[in-house]
From TrEMBL:
Its main location: cytoplasm. Homotetramer. Forms an RuvA(8)-RuvB(12)-Holliday junction (HJ) complex. HJ DNA is sandwiched between 2 RuvA tetramers; dsDNA enters through RuvA and exits via RuvB. An RuvB hexamer assembles on each DNA strand where it exits the tetramer. Each RuvB hexamer is contacted by two RuvA subunits (via domain III) on 2 adjacent RuvB subunits; this complex drives branch migration. In the full resolvosome a probable DNA-RuvA(4)-RuvB(12)-RuvC(2) complex forms which resolves the HJ. GO terms for biological process: DNA recombination; DNA repair. The RuvA-RuvB-RuvC complex processes Holliday junction (HJ) DNA during genetic recombination and DNA repair, while the RuvA-RuvB complex plays an important role in the rescue of blocked DNA replication forks via replication fork reversal (RFR). RuvA specifically binds to HJ cruciform DNA, conferring on it an open structure. The RuvB hexamer acts as an ATP-dependent pump, pulling dsDNA into and through the RuvAB complex. HJ branch migration allows RuvC to scan DNA until it finds its consensus sequence, where it cleaves and resolves the cruciform DNA. Has three domains with a flexible linker between the domains II and III and assumes an 'L' shape. Domain III is highly mobile and contacts RuvB. This is Holliday junction branch migration complex subunit RuvA. One of its GO terms (cellular component) is Holliday junction resolvase complex. NCBIfam families: ruvA.
Amino acid sequence: MIAQITGNVVSAGPTWIVVELGGLGLRALTTPSTSAGARPGQPVTLQTSLVVREDSLTLYAFADADERDAFELVQSASGIGPKIALATVSVLPPDALRTAISTANLVALMKVPGIGKKGAERLVIELRDKVAGLGSGAEPAAQAAPAASGWQDQVASGLETLGWSARDAAAAVERIAPLAAEDPTLGVGALMRAALRTLAKG
C-alpha cells in the first residue's frame, strides 16, 4: 500500500496531479482543494490511497490525512466506489462530512453527484458510528498558481469527472466567470472549489 508520496509537482489539473519521484512521473487523482495547492516545480507531500482493480491501479492523493481517511471511510459503505467517494470529499470536506452523517443531513449528502436519497440514508446508517474522529477543521494553506486562459474547459472537465452532467458543469462555469474575471490570480483548483460551492447551493 502506498500511503504517502513526496516529490516535485510536474503538472496539475482540476482533479489530478503529476508528481516526479526519482525520474518517474506519478499521476494521482485528487480533490480540487488538493490540486489547488499544487505549484509546478515545487515539492509536495501527499497522503495517498491506492485502489486496486482487476484491470487497473489508481492512486488517489490528498493534502492531509483527514481527507484521505474520509475518502476511504466513504468507500466502506456498500455501493460506494472510489469515483463517488472522491466526489463526496470534494463537495464535503471532512468536518462537513462528519456533521452531515452524524446529524443525518440527507440534503447535504445528496448534493454529491451519484448519491440519491437511498444512498444518503445508507451512508448515515453505515457510517454514523465511524465518523466521530473525522475532520480537523484545517484547510490546505498553499496557494495555487493563476489559472490559464482555458480555465473554463479545465473546470468543466473536472466537474464532469466528479460526476456532474455537462449541462450542470457549463452552468457552474458560467456562474463563476465573474469571479475569475475579478481576480485573475485565482488558480483552477480555487475556481473548481467555487464551482462546487455553486452546485452545492443549487
